[in-house]
């Protein structure tokens, strides 16, 4: 069964809520998100770039790094009271209106 964004936000909140420390501050969240994006960049570089991973380096994956970014994004949204489904809908509206003619559409036959 697939999870909705709301379900994922609740699952993350249930996890974080069990700890006294709770969510990190927005600045710390942003730093964590930046770290995770850097780790994703490293994995993409190793997978698709010219510099292979050293034999001694951990065996991470693009999938896990994207999962880490999703987790910290959900934490960030939860800490600020942002509904990610609503945020997604607003962004899609922007792409479907303001940016609707920005790219060349495929022919529909």
Task: Summarize the model shown.
The protein has 109 residues and is mostly helical. The chain is built from four helices and no strands. The longest helix is centred in the middle third of the chain and has 23 residues.
Question: Could you walk me through the main structural features you see in this protein, from its secondary elements to its overall organization?
Answer:
Helix content is 62%, strand content 0%. It has 109 residues and is mainly α.
Features:
mainly alpha, flat, 109 residues, 62% helix
Helix content: 55-70%
**Topology as a string of helices (H) and strands (E):** HHHH
Give the averaged pLDDT, no decimals.
92
User: Helical element count?
Assistant: 4
The total strand number stands at 0
Into which percentage range does the β-strand content fall? under 5%
Q: Give the low-confidence spans.
A: none
Separation, N- and C-terminal Cα atoms = 33 Å
The secondary-structure class comes to mainly alpha
Major pleated sheet: none
Radius of gyration: 18 Å
Instruction: Name the overall outline.
Output: flat
How are the SSEs placed, and which strands pair?
Blueprint: H1 5-17, H2 26-48, H3 62-79, H4 84-97
């Amino acid at each position: 069964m697939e999870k909705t964004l709301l379900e994922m936000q609740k699952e993350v909140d249930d996890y974080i809520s069990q700890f006294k420390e709770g969510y990190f501050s927005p600045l710390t969240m942003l730093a964590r998100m930046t770290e995770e994006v850097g780790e994703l960049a490293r994995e993409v570089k190793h997978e698709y770039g010219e510099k292979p991973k050293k034999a001694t380096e951990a065996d991470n994956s693009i999938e896990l790094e994207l999962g880490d970014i999703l987790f910290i994004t959900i934490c960030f949204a939860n800490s600020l009271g942002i509904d990610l489904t609503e945020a997604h809908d607003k962004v899609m509206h922007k792409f479907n209106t303001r940016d609707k003619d920005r790219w060349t559409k495929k022919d529909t036959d």
